[in-house]
Amino acid sequence: MTIAIFGVGLMGESLLAGLLASGWDAAGIRAVEAQPARAQQIGQKYGVAVVGAADAVAGADAVIVVVKPNNVADLLEDIGALLSPDALVVSLAAGVTTATLESHLPAHQPVVRVMPNTAALVGEAMTVMSAGTSATPAHLDQAGRVLSAVGQVQTVPEKQMDIITAVSGSGPAYVMYVAEAMIDAAVLFGLPRPLATDLVKQTLYGSAKLLATSGEHPTKLKENVVSPGGTTAAALRAFEDHGVKAAFIDAIEAAYARSRELGQA
Fold first, then answer.
1. Backbone angles phi, psi at 27, to 5 degrees
2. What domain range is 59 assigned to?
3. Largest CA distance in the chain
4. Could you count the other beta carbons within 10 Å of the beta carbon of residue 42?
5. What is d(CA 132, CA 42) in angstroms, rounded to the nearest whole number?
6. What's the average model confidence in pLDDT over 57-68?
7. What value, to the nearest 5°, has the Cα angle with vertex 36 and ends 35 and 41?
8. 128 & 213 share domain
9. What is the pLDDT of residues 101-152, one digit of tens each?
10. CATH code of the domain containing 185
11. Is residue 96 part of a domain?
């Protein structure tokens, strides 16, 4: 499969690096990058061809769109006539629906809408995808083979994509926010920042691994830490007093609403 990647910023580079690390042939990957210095850097670092749009699209089996949502329409209008009829267009642009993608492409062009997250940088992304009207199970399999290079992949109905964006797509930022708060609290009460950072990193990593591998519900795993009248019980009471769970729900609702707005723009 020949792949053209439009946009090699943080997420585009993560996908490119993941493909190569999983054994993908660099000769089968073409990248398009508007910034000349960045284009040169990517070409030298990964050994892939960094070319113009027409050269990237020519004969490509899959076109991966990793540009800002407000640039998607113009890009698809520019390359639509250059695509082969069975070329799969995979969009990683937040909030951009398959209907919008299809409206800027030739009729019956297969499209797949994707929402990854930045854990792709370490090959641990949670990526979900939804098929457009002309995308077949074979197209989803094709997209899945590409995306699995950077983590886990699931197929979902598109109506779930906005809330998934709010939970999973934005999720790494929430985790980093919690990590930042824990580190700052440790420093406030006397720990050196490097030690505080190490403690929090391993605590979050270990907790995530426990959640992923234990088969237990998070509530059960939380209860395993709580002793009656103990330190964890006191901390959890403070969370409840400050409405932390409600704040997380409100934050996810705000992200969900914004994803819907982006899809209607």
1. -70, -20
2. 3-158
3. 68
4. 21
5. 31
6. 94
7. 100
8. no
9. 999 999 999 999 999 998 988 889 999 999 999 999 999 999 999 999 999 9
10. 1.10.3730.10
11. yes
Structural tokens at position 242? 């400050």
Residue with tokens 């199970």: 137
- Residue ending a domain, among 129, 158, 187, is 158
Q: Judge if 137 and 245 occupy the same domain.
A: no
- With a pLDDT cut of 70, the percent of the chain lying above it is 100
**Tokens at 16, concatenated:** 């490119």
Q: Report if residue 166 sits inside a domain.
A: no
Residue found under tokens 């729900």: 249
Return the SS3 of 222. Answer: helix
Beta bridge partners of 73: none
Cβ 31 vs Cβ 48: under 8 Å? yes
Q: Does residue 40 lie in a domain region?
A: yes
Backbone angles phi, psi at 89, to 5 degrees: -105, 120
Q: Check whether residue 142 and residue 217 sit in a common domain.
A: no
Cα–Cα distance between 252 and 231 in angstroms, integer? 29
The 3-state DSSP composition of the chain as helix, strand, coil percent (nearest 5) reads 60, 15, 25
Q: How far apart are CA 111 and CA 95, in angstroms?
A: 14
Pair 117, 171: CB distance under 8 Å: yes
* Tens of pLDDT, residues 177-187: 999 999 999 99
Nearest CA to 127 out of 110, 104, 144 is that of 144
Task: Look at residue 265 in the predicted model and tell me its pLDDT.
Answer: 65
Please check whether residue 46 is in contact with residue 20, taking contact to mean a CB–CB distance below 8 angstroms: yes
Residue 113 and residue 97: Cα distance in Å, rounded? Answer: 7
Give the confidence band of 79 by pLDDT, cuts at 50, 70, 90: very high
Q: Is the pLDDT of residue 263 over 80?
A: no
The answer to whether residue 165 sits within a structural domain is: no
Burial class of residue 191 (count of CB atoms within 10 Å of its CB; 0-12, 13-18, 19+): middle
